[in-house]
Structures
1.
Amino acid sequence: MVERSKWFFLAALLAAMLLSACNMPRRGQPRDSRSALYTQAALTVIAQTTLIAQPPATQSVPTLAPTAILPPGTLTPIPTYTPGPTSPPTATATPVPCDRARFVRDVTIPDDTQLRPGEAFVKTWRIRNAGSCTWNTAYALVFAGGEIMGAPASVPLPRNVAPGEEIDLSVNLVAPASAGSYRGNFMLRNASNNPFGLGDGSKPFWVQIRVVTPKQLAFDFLAQAQYAEWVSAVRDNPGASLTFGGAEDDPNGVAKIKDRIRLETGLTSGKILLTFPRHDPEGVLSGLFPSYTVQSGDRLRGTLGFWTPGSSCHNGKVIFQINYLEGSELKMLQQWPKTCSGDLTSIDLNLSNLAGKSVRFALVVIADGAYQDDWAVWNSLRIER
């Protein structure tokens, strides 16, 4: 609208100027009053037009005072919650059961030991009293399932066992007649006839064997003992002949077969070969057996220990030896120093290095100090092929 008004007044002004030019006075003529009026009107229009064309005055805006800025470090942190000291919950001690056992190790017949059909053997476990009650002699080792292998229903504990103590528990067994793997489970029974076993789960412990059928029993030392040449001597001195099966109190020593005697394990044996050396701190007893030709694959097996005629074998201490005579030369096959410790010693010798040779085996027992308790036992000694 302002632009249209502007051009309208400019056009009117131009027209007025053209009209006035036609009536302009000649040189020397005075201007009349109407010219002055139009000039004044034109100036007024231009002034108004210029005023209208100008943009409206800008509205003034009040200036705000600057906001004050806080210096750094004046902010107050929001407090955090810090829990106060608390006491940890008191652990409740789990009571130790009265009757609980822990397996320590197999003393004899480790798992999968190979035995021949019908072979008598002694299985011994070392067990720790892991409960809070003392086991007394009213407690017992009991059969708990599996292959019984001739085990008795129970074997009373031979002594008291306080919590934390260990005891060796043994049982007389017989390998089954057929080849195969067999396992028999055992547990303990308290004085109230309640069975218990290993750990919190009261698990059984066991004997596990493999029965193997040898092609043949090649040589039985117990059966051949009566044909051996027995000699009593003192170490490094010539000996004197000893009659097999003589009196047990003979000061020259004794060699004889005995049956069902109490072994150092506390259990009853089957047939064994008893050898007591000459009554001397260095007494010796030896038996030279009939000639035998060794075959490839032959193994010499058995167990060594002590007879306990009284309550124990006390200070029994000997050296067991197996030697062999080849021609005129006597050679040692192996020896085993042995004390009456409550454990039997197992032997298993591979004779393959003697295969094809005809030899005479010699069993020897040597006193190792005081001889009074040297009731040395050879159990199930044999050569298998």
2.
Amino acid sequence: MQTIKKRFLLALTLFLVAGFSYAGNKDNEGYKFQSIKEIPHTSVKNQFRSGTCWSFAGMSFFESEMLRMGKPEVDLSEMFPVSMCYRDKAIKYVRMQGNTNFGAGGVLYDDLYVANNYGLVPEKVFPGIKYDEEKHVHGEMDNVLRNMVEAVVENKNKKMSPVWDEAVNSTIDSYLGVVPQNFEYKGKNYTPKSFASDFCGINGDEYVQITSFTHHPFYQQFILEVPDNWLWSEFYNVPLDELQEIVDASIENGYSVLWAADVSEKGFATTQKGIAVIPEKITTEMNDAEISKWDSLSEKEKESSLYKFDKPGKERIITQEVRQMAFDSQETTDDHAMHLIGLAKDENGTVYYKVKNSWGKYNDLKGYFYASKPYLRYKTTAIVVNKAAIPEAIRKKMKL
């Protein structure tokens, strides 16, 4: 999920949704949310200038799973999965002669892959910053690694050396640190794999990633065609109504949900407004006169004009067909991973999902926001849930 590019776009799109408000603003106007259900979770973290949302969301999800199972609270290292995936991603990129994606992004399955194959480690054991920064800044590392694997693929020597991967791994170690083979934590010695199984109780096989698209059969698995799916991982495919049913049932029964979605919509107003919604009327649906009027407005005038929603309003009805068209036209892309940790209702009784983000305490909601059900139906690319959270009737159709 290429979150850095999208975050620049968000600054532009926020003008189109200015006027939205959220619970707790100083004027006591706008959206007022009341909690319905909140699942135990850990504090908001900050991926800062790194494209590693998939790992931040995944570790948050695992931390909540531990709390659900009665395990102690722990801050898991987000950079451990990043380090391990970068190594394997480099090998695949070279084997594919450069004809696959290589970069910081990933999909939700990557967290399960790392937990199963490499384990997990605490943040204090592997903070993943060996350069002169207090927060994660990955632009240089990402570019250096890309240049390295591209040089290997170019293969000017007509024969690859047997040590090229050692050079790549050494570079990863230089930026993120050397991955511990074993470590002490709370008086016991662990390897990353024993820490994941014995201390955390996390088994990646207990979780599945699910999506909903009509270009593949329902109730079967398929490889979702998004660039960051470098492992070619398979997703279960269910109808849209059942995808939402899975999310709702999971949260209502105490299971949080790992969520991947497009965040480039005009209604993704989480920075200033703390909401993600799909307004009923959008720019592309204006007539020529309205578009002309809109284009002539100053930014300040736009803030108080066509998209002024100072309270909950009508949202688009999202069908399976509408959702599919957005994916096929690439209006919906795999941008960002987040963590659904609760349900809340606005003053009209409309239910929203409470979302834990990974951009630090960047808004007045301290890093959280509320996503509407239409937003989830329209912009979700995938979810990961515990198999036990899936309603039995749907689980049977999925043959789980």
3.
Amino acid sequence: MLKIGIFGVGHLGKFHITNWQKIREAELVGFFDPDDDTATAVEKQFGIPRFADAEDLLDACDAVDIVAPTTLHYDLCEKAIRKSRHVFVEKPLADTMEQAHKIVKLAKEANVKIQVGHVERFNPAYLALKDHTLNPMFIEVHRLAQFNPRGTEVSVILDLMIHDIDIILNIVKSDVRSVSASGVAVMTETPDIANVRIEFNNGCVANLTSSRMSMKKMRKMRLFQKDAYIGIDFLEKKTEIIKLKDETDSKEAFVFDIETPKGKKEIAVSTLAMPEANAILMELQAFTNSVLNNLPTVVSEVDGLIAMDVAHQVLNKIKSANYLA
């Protein structure tokens, strides 16, 4: 049984509590949150004890779940790692690149497991592609959200776009060659909308747009590769593949003909089947399995560091562009 202590029980933290209580191999021993009103409500709603001191909670558990604001990630990770506690930490891994590098170094020295909460890795629309060959040469992404004052202590890059940066880095097996970006701070002190172009050494190009100033929500990624187009809708949890027909296509695929200069070709359109899934539950279960069975975490601290590195390249490009303007 893995004893879990949770740090931060605000909006997202409550979802984590609900899901930890569903994992048979884990026991939620308590939580730490400095807000008295929030803590009182959580104790009453979930029946788990509040720890008044963070060190006491660390001493009582085997692993921690850090759902506190990003500015607190490093301090909490450091305290946990120095006590040899395994760590699940929400994205982004840390507030600065220096802090992120220190976390990676500390985790290696202490030989503890760290998983970063890039929850879209567990979205069924993405998991549906696990048996498909992905080799995109162009990627187009739109992640739009309505404005919400919660979470605006970080830019839209580290709040929203980093989800897609992580997914793209997981798909494209090549180093980043260059990054260009533009962004605007509309309602906050950091960029609220941004457009980014990432070029990879293998020739792949990714064009990403993220906004938290939209009238509607959208979380879509489109992959274009030789002989195939793949559309992933993270919000609606739907995935569609349009490709040249071959023996791998299911009988349910819709097939039609097109005329090309080289003759007639058959096109197959497939909508991938996917069961209902709880991505937060899946990522917490995966972390539990990694710790109990000594397996690599699905999204390691190194993955979190690399995603942060690209995100900070984007922020630096936006800062430079705005400065020059």
